[in-house]
Amino acid sequence: MNTAFKKRRLALAATLVLATGAAHAAEPLSSWNDGLAKKAIVDFVERVSQEGGADYVHPSERIAVFDNDGTLWSEQPMYVQLAFILDRIKAMAPGHPEWKDTQPYKAVLENDVAALAASGEKGLMELLVATHAGMSTAEFESTANQWIRTARHPKTGELYTGMVFQPMLELLQYLRENRFKTFIVSGGGVEFMRPWSYEVYGIPPEQVVGSQIKVKYEVRDGVPTLAREPGINLVDDKAGKPVGIHYHIGRRPIAAFGNSDGDYQMLEWTTSGPGPRFGMIVHHDDAGREAAYDRESHFGKLDKGLDDAAGKGWIVVSVKDDWSCVFRYACAP
Amino acid sequence: MNTAFKKRRLALAATLVLATGAAHAAEPLSSWNDGLAKKAIVDFVERVSQEGGADYVHPSERIAVFDNDGTLWSEQPMYVQLAFILDRIKAMAPGHPEWKDTQPYKAVLENDVAALAASGEKGLMELLVATHAGMSTAEFESTANQWIRTARHPKTGELYTGMVFQPMLELLQYLRENRFKTFIVSGGGVEFMRPWSYEVYGIPPEQVVGSQIKVKYEVRDGVPTLAREPGINLVDDKAGKPVGIHYHIGRRPIAAFGNSDGDYQMLEWTTSGPGPRFGMIVHHDDAGREAAYDRESHFGKLDKGLDDAAGKGWIVVSVKDDWSCVFRYACAP
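ok -> structure tokens follow
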């Protein structure tokens, strides 16, 4: 990363941190309407923070984990990383003339959604490998970084990083002010998120857990390099989430925040430990301000989680009723 | 973990933190003799901490990584985790009568070092799987925790956690006071270290990177469980160290501390990045106070690192000359 770019990054980060701090110094969780969800959050945080109280948790054990897609930012009309993959295929196409006649590349280049869907998980994996492996980690970071700073959401025309959920940013901030350590635990690629997680969420790369491609260390022409290999080291989704948490964090969180059945096991693992526990599901039920989807959705399907939330004691957040404002770009002062 | 035990842990942690803080509030690195090594450390930390200076590094990027065996605590006459494995085989033997006549178990039960050595890496791996897999992560943590709190070093009779290097504890503290984030990056098993890393080193579990056994999430009789499987997910040694750093931390450290050729690639990866970088090797040359070993040692062999240190700009610390006191148990006031 060049120095000028780095300085801009730091300046932007400082601005965001200051802005967030200033806007909410007076009232935490200001984009949350008064209601059961907000009350449950505040009650939990106060209980575990009260020294001498029955539910006190030492700050070193206040670990909170957040899913990313659909929990911290929008996953509609498709995962942001999938949009990145499609854009990369198009950008790389001139160097691969054979893609014009080969599926699933042909489908991407022709915006043929039906053919792309027909290529299934195998097709997607091929696109993932083509765009995510075969380069150094530094090269991938640079590519992902440039893309996220310029690519725009197909519906709103906003930067994707503006389409993070303002109430969740406030929640991250509120937890950190109460000495929680906040982690992302996402099915998305860890290296896709790490370049911007600190700026956008205040979460440093070392607190981002995600799906991982294999890497290999080697000295290439005298230059130490981490090469991205065409193999998967961890699929950090569903039953893989507690595993990713264990590998990276090494202890059970006390609070987990998700939105889909991909987060079910993370919520289950987190909330079944002893002592005070907190689980929350964001339910996307606001077609006007964002999108309304759950049991039938291709992205972020929420079915079993909706059925079991009440029995498990998980709080279901209604975007429509619980959030006074949704996207950062639309809420910022 | 039961509550009484947890409270004792926290009390002990608080005592250690307070003791370390009080002892060194006046003078950091007080067990380091004045010399090139101490001067190099202080110079580096001051350079990266000076805002506006040419070598300033933002605190969020002040990542320092430490090998464990031979760098933070003694690895002689054998790795502590190997002593744990041998003790576990003996403790588990009553449930495995067949071990009396089966290698490599027989060798362990009869303290037959030659036969154990003859079983080679394959034999060791068998012992590792027998003692480290086939139970839940919670069961393993409890076993490791009980062992480390009672087992004693064969030569000094001290608890292993008393045989950590006092100058390195002061170095960890000094770096953290200067807003470094300190990580362990060890060839040892990550779950062997995490139960006590915070108490002993002030390093929380989520900042410990190490070799990793595969785990699997499942709900057993209604209880969410992480089961340890007989397979290795990561060997965090040699070229595996930069890989482990990348998976867990997600960015290149600016300072690395090791003592053996197992740390060579970690030092190389860390110090070949742009901007200010720091690499240090602890050279065990003090037979009187600890042990003298390097090129020929079975544990912690240091050969290539000694040859290349000067050319790479890595500081070689002499235990004999640079440390006024070695083990915590012998230095503590």
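The first strand of chain A starts at residue 63 and ends at 66.
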